[in-house]
Specification:
heterodimer, A: ABC transporter involved in vitamin B12 uptake, BtuC, two-stranded antiparallel ribbon, globular, B: alpha/beta, Rossmann fold, 2 domains, binds adenosine-5'-triphosphate, binds magnesium ion
Chain lengths: 340, 250
């Protein structure tokens, strides 16, 4: 058993970040029981949204956190994934697995093309180019009247063999299983030879080159993997929302993903998911709380939200995961657990 | 019997605008030889290394490694062809431990960097390989130290270890002692001395004691041109060199 654990790198350094991630995922598995007990099924809906955005953020984190590539256009891949379901259904393709395969294939090809072109630039130019590609795709879908244009198109929950997504909690656990698969995949990738090379490129690209490796190849591969994960989240998002419009790939969502990652902890496994939980809960609760305190300002909850985010970023270097790691765990006598 | 040079530079010229940084320069480095390249600041030493390494393209001339013309090859391709390099400003993976630096160099050497499943840093074969890489410069006792916590001289030694990781046929060392204290400089000199015979070395160094101790042959560069080349004895008695360069020393 320990041999097996060793093989998967679970005994070596990095166990806490792994553990934390799986703790959160386990939490999502039992969450429906809680909502059942307190009779608040609405919260399952919030949890699904959190898992979906968390999944997309985990995908983006591979390039943003581990690879140091500030892509400002990943919402486009969520949108493409969602439209693969919508357009697939439009042409009579009802099978959910087929939608997922389609979105993986389309996002991988698109990620390859955009990555190949955009990764020739760095810094601010890379940010602008990824944003530009995403905006192109956004306006492409706005202009496609056939698929609802601006108004979008409604979607039936996809048919997954033997799984009727209209049954209660089926969609919830489909999303949960996909989230767990993505988490497992990323856990392997970031510790693998490929993953550490990607992290080395972020640390010092010219040394990696001096080792005889071509950094661009690793960056493009990472970019494609992250695009595919966002596409997968997007296809599930479509079934959850039963609707897709260009709004799903609005540039503000790309920004939202970045905030979620930075909030949770850049370059950690648990960070994006934790960030999604906190971000979406604040989005849900802050207006209510503010409304109760000063009703006139309920609409302006962003005024509180912004400074709150800035505080986490400034004081909790390493985001919430870093904060928990350096400030909270030691107080509980659990010692500092390296996130690395 | 004739031996072929490891590195042969043929009539290399490189200009930046009006400035000729490399002027019709030819030079050879023989197998197992330590060839020192000296010259005042701005003489064009780093620029020459960059052209051998592939980061800069010469305007004209050829770089041959073991008889093979490297023209058109990228930096990583030249590394795989047998070049190792340390930089004037130390260039290592700061956010990793010493051992992790070695592990990444090891799987790069083995061409295994595109593997996605097994964790890299706990792989026993890679750890063994990395330890062997670090042992060359006596750094394996510091394996678990973060590179950012290393003394500057130790970082220079790590960089040398990484440059040697793939057992290159040519090592380009751009001021390997720069920034290291006298003790580390001394250790570095001994380590480079120990590499003599295993690998051909083109060494840029301002520390004349180290150069005179290490170099089998010397090339003196001033304003992009070779003003003298020969053995240590020949160069140290050369009048042109004395006035142009060594004169400044004392
Ligand atoms: N990319 C560049 N563009 C323009 N000029 C350059 C460039 N790189 C180097 N130079 C100039 O070329 C000349 C040679 O520079 P180089 O760095 O090769 O000198 P060096 O011999 O390595 O000096 P040092 O001993 O200070 O390291 C200098 O005058 C420098 O300013
Ligand atoms: Mg220089």
């Amino acid at each position: 058993m320990t041999g097996l654990l060793k093989f998967f790198g679970l005994v070596h350094a990095g166990i806490s970040d792994n553990k934390f991630l799986w703790l959160l995922i386990a939490g999502f598995a039992v969450f429906p029981i809680v909502t059942q007990l307190v009779d608040l099924p609405f919260w399952n809906d919030v949890a699904m949204r959190i898992m979906l955005l968390g999944m997309a953020a985990m995908g983006l984190n591979l390039v943003l956190g581990y690879g140091g590539m500030v892509s400002f256009g990943h919402a486009a891949f969520i949108g493409i994934g969602a439209y693969c379901v919508g357009i697939g259904q439009y042409y009579g393709l009802m099978n959910g697995w087929a939608h997922i395969l389609l979105s993986v294939a389309v996002c991988a090809s698109l990620g390859l093309v955009i990555g190949y072109l955009a990764l020739r630039t760095t810094g601010i130019y890379f940010i602008m180019i990824t944003l530009a590609f995403a905006q192109m795709l956004f306006f492409l879908f706005v202009s496609l009247e056939q698929f609802g244009g601006d108004d979008g198109m409604s979607i039936d929950r996809a048919e997954f063999l033997l799984i009727d997504l209209y049954e209660p909690l089926r969609l919830y656990f489909l999303i949960w299983v996909m989230l767990a698969i993505v988490a497992l995949l990323l856990m392997f990738i970031v510790r693998s030879r490929f993953g550490v090379t990607l992290r080395a490129i972020k640390s010092n690209e010219s040394r990696v080159e001096a080792m005889g490796l071509v950094p661009l190849h690793f960056k493009i591969t990472g970019y494609v993997i992250s695009a595919v994960i966002c596409g997968l989240a997007g296809s599930l998002f479509a079934s959850w929302q039963e609707y897709v419009s260009p709004d799903i790939m609005h540039w503000t969502r790309s920004g939202e993903l970045m905030i979620i990652i930075i909030l949770g902890g850049l370059g950690t496994l648990a960070g994006p998911l934790l960030g999604a939980i906190v971000f979406l809960l604040l989005e849900e609760f802050l207006p209510l709380m503010l409304g109760a305190l000063v009703p006139a300002y309920a609409e302006n909850w962003m005024v509180l939200f912004g400074p709150l985010l800035i505080m986490v970023v400034l004081f909790g270097r390493g985001g919430l995961v870093g904060l928990i790691d350096s400030k909270i765990l030691p107080h509980l006598g659990l010692g500092k657990t390296a996130v690395k | 019997m004739m031996t072929n040079p490891v590195l042969e530079l043929r009539d290399i010229t490189k200009s930046f605008g009006a400035l000729t940084a490399t002027n019709n320069l030819s030079l050879t480095v023989m197998p197992g030889e330590i060839h020192a390249l000296i010259g005042p600041n701005g003489a064009g030493k780093t620029t020459l290394i960059q052209q051998i390494y592939g980061a800069l393209k010469p305007d004209s001339g050829q770089v041959l490694l073991n008889g093979r013309d490297l023209t058109g090859l990228s930096v990583p391709a030249r590394i795989r062809a047998g070049i190792g390099r340390s930089f004037q400003i130390s260039n290592v993976l700061m956010d990793f431990t010493v051992l992790q630096n070695g592990i990444i160099a090891e799987h790069a050497r083995l061409g295994q960097s595109f593997r996605f499943l097994q964790p890299a840093f706990s792989n026993p074969q890679l750890i063994d390989g990395a330890i062997a890489i670090l042992d060359r410069v006596g750094l394996s006792s510091r394996a678990d130290t973060m590179v950012s916590d290393l003394a500057h001289g130790e970082r220079r030694m790590l960089e040398l270890a990484l440059a040697m990781a793939a057992s290159p046929s040519l090592l380009l060392l751009d001021e390997p002692m720069a920034g290291a204290g006298p003790d580390d400089g001394q250790r570095m000199t001994e380590i480079i001395d120990g590499l003599r015979g295993d690998v051909a070395i083109l060494l840029i160094e301002h520390d004349m004691d180290a150069v005179f101790r290490l170099a089998d042959r010397l090339t003196v560069l001033v304003e992009g041109s070779v003003i003298a080349a020969g053995t240590v004895d020949e160069i140290s008695t050369n009048q042109a060199v004395k006035t142009a360069y060594l004169g400044d020393e004392d």
